[in-house]
Give the backbone structure.
Amino acid sequence: MASMRHFSIAVVVTATLCVTACQTDTGARNSAPPSTAASGSPVSGGTLRLVGSGDVDHLDPTSSYYTVTNGILRTYARGLFGLNGVPAGADTTKGFTLVPDVAAEMPTKENGGLSADGITYTIKLRDGVQWDTQPPREVTAGDFVRGFKRICNPVAGSGAPGYYTSTIKGMQAYCDAYAKAFTKAKPTAKALADFQNGHDIAGVQAKDDKTLVFTLTQPASDFLNILSLNFSVAAPEEYDQYVPDDATFRRHTISNGPYKITQYVATKSIRLERNPAWKQESDPIRHQYVGAIEVKMGVAEPDAVQQQLEAGSADLSWDLPVPTAQIPRLKSSGDPNFTIFPGAVSNPYIVFNLQSKNADGAMGKLKVRQAIEYAVSKVAIAKVYGGSDVATALHTAIPPGNIGYQEYNPYPSPGDAGDPAKCKQMLAEAGYPNGLTLIGAYRNAGNHPANFQSYAADLEKCGITVKGLPVRQGDYYGAFLQNPSLAKAGKWDISAPGWVPDWYGNNGRAVVQPLFETNCNPGTSNYGCYSNPKVDSLIKQALAQQDQAKAAALWHEVDTTVMADAVIVPLNNQNTPIYHSKRVHNALYLPAFQLYDFTNLWLDPNTP
Amino acid sequence: MTLTEIRPGAVGGGPVAGRGPWQLAWRRIRTDKVAMVSGAVVVLLCALALAAPLIAAWTGHGPDEQFRDTGITAQGLPVPPNGEFWFGTDRLGRDLFVRVLYGARVSLLVGVVATGMAALVGVVVGLLAGYYGGAVDTLLSRLMDVVLSFPYLIFAIAVVSIAGPSLTATIGVIAFYSWAAIARVVRGQTLALKEREYVEAARSMGAGDLRIMFVDILPNLLAPVIVLTTLLVPAAIVFESTLSYLGLGIVPPTPSWGNLLSEAQGFYRVAYWYLGFPAATLLITTLAFNLLGDGIRDAIDPRMERLFSRRRRTRKGA
């Protein structure tokens, strides 16, 4: 399951490549409207101004994978299920709970939405959800089927097709056929549309205009989470006229949400205005308070963005985090516009390249890895991100807020500050009394060089010299870590990536499976090519397990096994500091995207 | 060897005590206060750089040693200058003073070695091109043109992405980019010198090409080469800082001024010292080298009057 995270340029944590989150058991859930932060009655109008560095990865919801893109996707592309934001101070895990969006209700065994064997989902669509076409047209089940068929298009497919191919009956066969059909053929808009309209996915059927039926290969208790990801939102028939996400497509996106894109200038700006076809009564999770949303790109410095927010010349940061150095000041001054939301991520963590032959294959030796587990100071890494307010020491492979998490500490050190003596002793037992030399790859941007120098200094005390290998930020995951041939060639021994799951709650498929299941193919997220049959089997059992508590126990067992094997060194769970200008009200936080919900906030005063 | 007597440098004697051109230059530069101060700064910097390990041992702070309790706040902010850390600390709690000194070692090493290599290559290529002319000249001159027309930063980024960033790669890139400027000047000078009578005389006496190039022509090229080299050193230091700033130069934790500046950029609003001290040191160093280079040029070649020259103004007043 490839869901890789690319951390935003120049910076730290936030902008990751991902998507939705949530907890699902298959129980009934009422969709409550988002709670309004108590600060007066909503004001309509005004332009929400976002300022930041880079462009969206894609505007086509099928292929978008950056969290920043999700911020605006939410305003123009609606899925079957969605998430509500949470106000500051509330329990962020509430933001993991799925609610119906275009679906009329949560499918359960009681309401007949889910078959007794857990294989078939029947989902009714809500009335009154319309495309912004002339005249406005109702969103149909067929539009969703089209969305699923676009997932594995060979031009700009989804970044995580595995979630769908591993669950939906016939999806893998459909995707294989799609790829095969275009190994040689030119993927023109017509050829792609013809393929999609001429082939069916066995497990995705439109029973009528308002009813979707999904058939799975085996029960999957996280299936509704997968349906809530942006990859499988509805696609209007007009999208058949374009090659997915090409320049023409980007000029002709069609909205079924409260806003629509009225102008997009690549790498410069995006403007969204109210969508007249959208109706409040047919949208349980969004509003249409602000008059327009404007994204300005090209400001690469977090400091510059922060200054604009504080001066009130912009309202929110688009893709840059609050500058680390500013956090203590903002926190101590009690600035009401500044909030730190608790995180549920493993970022950064140290991964070992188990394939490396360097230093006598040291990385393949359990004792060496365990020695390193003891050596690294987790509090020092937390200080790189702004101290314990922002980042907390993490001891488990699965971070809190994710299924299977239970606090325990297999490699304790005093105050989480590392134990070089213990490391040294274990290293000697492992056959390296005189130390060793490793290659440490790091991204040469943002806080990453500091992270590297921090853990390298710890290992130096233990007798391990880590030679730095800077890697360009943009190459780090796709071209470097996810390329197992580089791992096998011993180009790196140790590195500190981060992981933000595509959804939270019941998400073993989005955390444990990609990180620890045997997979040494290009694009793997198991960067060090760890392989343990016991772990693989536990993952299989956990995915098939419908009882949440039993599944959680299985996921936790993976955690303990992985930590006993010392496959990674968990370092920090990072909280998300966010700042908004003082005229922003009802800022609801979406933990899955680490962003505020643009569709629920309002501006006072509302000029401009 | 009789040839030495007809070298232009040795001609200017007379009944007064014979002074060579170098002696004259020295006398001139000694009256140039700016050049002398700059020279002193350069010498001081070199001394501090050389003594960095001693100073580190004396302060008790290693260049890569992280003082996580005293050197950073609980929120990970650097500590301002104080009795223990004269220049304050950086974001990992390391002593900025010691790191700036160690950075000077890297910067000066890169500056001097890269420029030295560039001068060596530049002089040889320039001599060959100027002396032989014809096809050799065409070939070498085009080569210089090619090198000079490289967009240097893009070239550097390309090289570093292939070779991987390191001290050697940094020096190599800078040397590669700098030699052509020297070669061009040397070639021009050689073209003029090789037509001089003393060269003709040497040739008529049976001197070989190598001998003429290196014994007869080269000493007369030293003045412009020295001036150019002195001015290239600060350029090389800035180049190294640029590369390191972009994460393409010296690999951390080894401190270089570029690395220090790069690390400090997110902290300038809360920690002036973090950016201030490395930046000031870099500024002072390049300024000192440039002014020293200017001074040497004035001293060696007094005919070349600088615009707004201090000495010219004093002469007018006198």
